[in-house]
Write a structure and sequence with these properties.
Blueprint lengths: L2 H26 L7 H10 L3 H20 L9 H26 L6 E3 L2 E3 L11 H5 L5
Antiparallel strand pairs: 1-2
Helix pairs in contact: 1-4, 2-3, 3-4
Length: 138
């Protein structure tokens, strides 16, 4: 494969992965926090959100490894699995950066209808775990 063909392939792949991520985000994350699903599950089972991410990521790694070993994938194409893997790498990196920023005292920005504001400038309501679980956080 030539460099030009490879670069176009990766550009197309990245575009498709972003489209998959945008399409699935509504099912897994709140508008104000794309990492919410990891944090919610972590709260439910009492662990670090990065561990939840690692389990979700590992599921996709296992699928790709099964494919590499000759197993047919029934529910999704291998292309879709690779898109998910790339998106999980991005999400994992975002978790690490957010944790680093929080540890260094840097405000994590939240997107609101009025624009981007640090959490200290917002009226952030505390929600119960049950409210979060039931999806009542708006």
């Amino acid at each position: 494969m030539t460099r030009e063909v490879y670069e176009q392939l990766i550009a197309d792949f990245d575009k498709a992965a972003k489209e998959v991520c945008a399409r699935k985000r509504a099912d897994y994350a709140k508008e104000y926090d794309v990492l919410d699903n990891f944090k919610l599950v972590a709260d439910l089972i009492g662990c670090d959100p990065k561990l939840v991410w690692a389990v979700f990521f590992a599921k996709h790694v296992v699928s790709a490894c099964k494919f590499a070993g000759g197993q047919q994938l029934a529910s999704e194409s291998i292309d879709s699995r690779f898109h998910d893997l790339k998106n999980y790498v991005d999400l994992g990196y975002a978790l690490v950066v957010e944790e680093r920023n929080d540890a260094n005292g840097n405000a994590t920005e939240f997107i609101t209808e009025q624009g981007v504001k640090p959490p200290a400038e917002q009226d952030v309501k505390e929600f119960t775990l049950l409210e979060k679980f039931l999806g009542r956080v708006k």
